[in-house]
Design goal:
137 residues; alpha+beta; Arc Repressor Mutant, subunit A; 2 domains; 4-stranded antiparallel sheet; 56% helix; 9% strand; Phage_rep_org__N
């Protein structure tokens, strides 16, 4: 998958009940930071909110702590809170997934851009082929 360099955030996100619960936690600031890092990592992987090193190797708590350069125990606590609040899930295959990832990615715009790029490439190839055929004559 091609890495996306952005994802959407709502300006009123801190009014969300889940974010308020996180903010009220003793480690709230840390957990918020892990949430944003998790969103960024999901954008880098760019596969429906899944977090993995490659398609066969999911991130574990240990590898997330290494990736985020944060203490293991705090990452473990953060992920536990985010799972409990249903912001992240851990699949049966042990992959962490950002729930409702499409809420953070403008999937329609990405699909539109992909289609437009495919059309542009096809047009360019057709033009190139036409010019090559023209030279043969």
């Amino acid at each position: 998958m091609v890495e996306e360099r952005w994802f959407k955030l709502r300006t009123n996100m801190f009014n969300d009940p889940k974010m308020k619960i996180i903010a009220d936690h003793d480690e709230g600031d840390f957990i918020e930071g892990i949430w944003f890092r998790t969103l960024c990592l999901a954008g880098i992987v760019n596969d429906g909110g899944y977090l993995y090193i490659n398609e066969d190797i999911p991130y574990t708590l240990k590898t997330l702590a290494i990736e985020f350069n944060k203490p293991y125990e705090k990452v473990k606590l953060s992920m536990k809170v985010l799972i409990k609040l249903q912001m992240i899930e851990l699949t049966e295959d042990k992959f962490y997934v950002v729930k409702n990832w499409t809420k953070y990615q403008n999937v329609d715009a990405l699909e539109k851009r992909r289609i437009e790029t495919n059309k542009r490439v096809a047009k360019h190839r057709a033009k190139k082929k036409f010019e090559e055929e023209k030279r043969k004559i």
